[in-house]
Amino acid sequence: MLSPPELSEPYAGLEDLDYLTRLAEDAVARGRTDDFYAALRRSEIPYLLSHHAGDLRELVLASLAALHALGTASPAIALGVSQHMATMLAFGLSGRLLEEHETAGPVIGALLQETLAQRLLIANTTSQGGGNRIGTKGSQISPEGEGFRIDGHSTFMSLATEAEKIVFLTYAAGGALVGVVTDADTPGLEVSGELLFGDHLALADTRRVFFDGLHVEADAVFGPDPALNAFYALQLVCHNLCVSALYLGGGRRIVEEVRRHGRTSMLPSGAPLATSDSFGANVGGLVITYLNAVDLLLSQVHLVSTLTGGDALDPATAGAALLRVSTAKHGVARSAETVATEGRKLIGARAFMGDHPVGRIGAEIAFAALGPATEKLIERNVGLKFLAEGT
């Protein structure tokens, strides 16, 4: 019942998924992800674009299935992996748009070729906000010799110490967005040694990135160009989809742990707690909440996988898709939080003892409302759009 076929099919490239999910469990127990990431790079999971470039729907579903499974072990680890997965998914969905763009096409094409050939991992970030003043721009790019110089900082970035390549957005004079691709070990780029989100999300490897005179060549930069706003929006679409899948994986694990609790805990009569009508009703509520959230996520797959099936993607269409997918992610995050909260109540104090999966995963799920955009930002965008419509 908890295995929707779209998220459990044996998609090409996912042959090592069960093994990697077990390694993610081991990584949680050890507090280290080195073995997990070594195995991830050996697998095909980060490189699904090689297997599904001709079928965008399968590319989306395979990516979501991988993150959903990893989320059952640790939403935090899956969040780190989602940096790369969402980036590659956006590249796959933006194929035609990028191919037709004079600067973005060659830059992203070279990045993809290098990533697939050398089995690299990619992280991405922006320079919007991240400070105490809303709307501030964290970094800026300016000409320097035959290339460009970047100074400032990013908002934050997961997969920060594992990624070999970084794609980020910065700002030119006048506020126009510019895309940059660079190696993670380039002089002038510093990944903070301090984790941004402490214990609960430590295994996501989320840190701030600083730019101190980072020099990049002209062939590593794309934009500014308003036509690329569609690509930037599509990146956020993919991040919202991927984040939804991994937190739903955490929700599924909690439902499974509640079932295990019901079967191993006994009533005064000696019968399993799972035979109680009231416990069954409570568990049924969790299952329904989870399955409804899965349906909400999967309802977005057709929309996203057909975005670039016809004419070249335009910013307005991509923006409308981002609003819809963000709204769906909002609902999925709320559902995952509900499952976590109610699951803890059913298990009781044991959920907080030691490293019980329900307590740990519930704490990781608490971050679902915060990214890629906070719930209140999504609500504001939807509310203002609604208020501007009609009479």
TrEMBL record:
Gene3D superfamilies recorded: Butyryl-CoA Dehydrogenase, subunit A, domain 2, Butyryl-CoA Dehydrogenase, subunit A, domain 3
The record ties this protein, via SUPFAM superfamilies, to:
Acyl-CoA dehydrogenase C-terminal domain-like, Acyl-CoA dehydrogenase NM domain-like
Source organism's superkingdom?
Answer: Bacteria
An example Gene Ontology molecular-function term: oxidoreductase activity, acting on the CH-CH group of donors
The molecule here is called Acyl-CoA dehydrogenase
